[in-house]
Amino acid sequence: MHRLIALEGATNFRDLGGYEAVDGRRVRWRRLFRADGLHGLTPADHRTLEALGIEEALDMRYGPERAGEPARLPESAASVHIGLPEAPGASLLETLNLGGVSSAEVAKSWLTASYAGYPEKYLPACRAILCRLVAEDAPPLLFHCTAGKDRTGFAAAVVLEALGVPRETIMEDYLLTNRHWDRGNREPEGLPREIYEPVFAAREEYLAASWATLDREHGGLEGWLDATVGFGTGERERLRATLLE
């Protein structure tokens, strides 16, 4: 099986199958997908999504992002908004364009701090993804944001760890964005590359900041799922029964 799904209108569309869990089982192929923006999908891409059996794309973007670049899906699939209705503040890219970031270190610190808040900020989106996955007769599931890196990267990490995939493996999957995402022509003009590069890169310290919050404040992912997300032991067992083989 190929992890990267080759599309004309998206570059970071990946299958989360094949990863080994700690109990020796593996995540089923062609059941769970992560992606970047879907606003550029072509008729050929639609045929690919239809062949994969995707009926819904769970969109983690903010409301204005969806309005500005609406997902172009086949008629057989629906775009379901699970992101925040509005951005919680100016994005780092917007701050860069306004000259509000002076160095790569400032940019990295900004993103690291942002990731530390992901368990709270994207809790509803993660709950929606997990609940879809354990629904009876659930079809293959796709979730995405703009780059398929930050919000999508955190959600993928949550699902994979809930399945029992080790964090080392999850980090390897997270870093694949650096290989596949073409950045969508979003790199700002007139700024040194070293300043904006941290915005577009997947870096270990970013995802590690989310894990640090989970470990420090919730005793790890399972504690967060139990007490905060409301996705307890029974749901996790059903998730593993559904997605592991």
Explain this structure to me?
Helices cover 49% and strands 7% of the residues. The radius of gyration is 17 Å and the shape is globular. A 5-stranded mixed sheet has the order 1-2-5-3-4, covered by helices on one side. The longest helix has 15 residues. The protein has 13 helices and 5 strands. Helix 4 runs parallel beside helix 10, helix 6 crosses helix 13 and helix 7 runs antiparallel to helix 8. The chain has 245 residues and is of the alpha/beta class.
Annotation keywords:
245 residues; alpha/beta; five-stranded mixed β-sheet; 49% helix
Which spans have pLDDT < 50 for at least 5 consecutive residues?
Answer: none
Neighbour order of strands in the largest sheet: 1-2-5-3-4
Molecular shape: globular
What level of helicity do the residues show? 40-55%
What radius of gyration results from the CA coordinates? Answer: 17 Å
Classify the beta-strand content into a percent band.
5-15%
Number of strands: 5
Secondary-structure element series: EEHEHEHHHHEHHHHHHH
The profile of the biggest β sheet is: 5 strands, mixed
Distance between the termini: 15 Å
Count of helix runs: 13
Which whole number gives the mean pLDDT?
A: 93
Q: What is the structural class?
A: alpha/beta
